[in-house]
Structures are given as structure tokens and as C-alpha cells.
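Data follows
____________
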Amino acid sequence: MNLIFILYVLHQISLAVGLACSLIVDVFIVLVEKSKHIRHTEKNILNRTLSYSFICALIVFFIQMGYIFFLILTDMSSNYPAKLYGFAALTTLISTCLLFCVASQKYYQVKVLFRYQEKHQHLSNSFITHHKELSYTAILSVILWIALYICYVIV
């Protein structure tokens, strides 16, 4: 029983920290589009914040997968309502999409952004207009974090 409580607390903390990190990254992306330059300090902050967001998304994903396996393994002894399976499937789908978004943001899109700035010393208008997927992914990850947080706060 203590393990379930510890996993629940870890899950809630990961949700809160991941949502906060995602909001920081989203605000940073908006500021980069306006200033068209990333300073070295901002680069370090963005890397660290995305690392925290990725770790939190990974923790949420693994706890969610454990929850699904727990439901499947204990289904023989107790009949769970269909709503519980639907909730577990929905939150697992959201956490999987969230993990994919944060991983692509950290390990692909931000690397392209930094590489372009190192090559050209600034972010041109054409780069910002043609590489909208970074801002779309940031917005999507914030929406997914909020949706997952609402799923666990309301229910």
C-alpha cells in the first residue's frame, strides 16, 4: 500500500513539474521568435528545462504503463468497471503522445534550432516562418500536459 501511495505522489509531482517546464519552454519559444537570437544562458536553460520535462514525461509514462499492467493482472480477482479501463486507455494514450512530443522537441527540433543559429549567428525570418513545427510541438506538449493533469485532478 505504501508503494502505491509513493507512486501516486511521484506521479503527481511529475505532472506538476512537467507542466511547469513545458510552460517555460513555450514562453521561451515565443520570445525566440520575437528576438531571433538565443543567448548562451538561454540555451542552457532551455536544455535543462527540456531535460526535466523529458524525465517527467518518462516517469509519467512508466507509471501509466504500470497502472495498465496492474489493471490487467488484477482483473481476474475483481471486476473493474468499463469506465476505469477507458480512463486508463485515455491517459496512457495522452502520456504516450506527450512522451513522443517532448522527445522530438528535445532531441530533434531544438538541436536544429541551435545548429542553425551557430551556423548563421541569428535566426532569420525565413527560418522562423518555415520551421513552425517547434512552436506547434511546444503548444501541443503544453496542451497534453494540461489534459493529463486535468484527467488526474478532476477524476
Observations:
- The radius of gyration is 18 Å.
- The helical segments are 2-35, 40-73, 82-120, 125-130, 133-154.
- The CA atoms of residues 144 and 150 lie 10 Å apart.
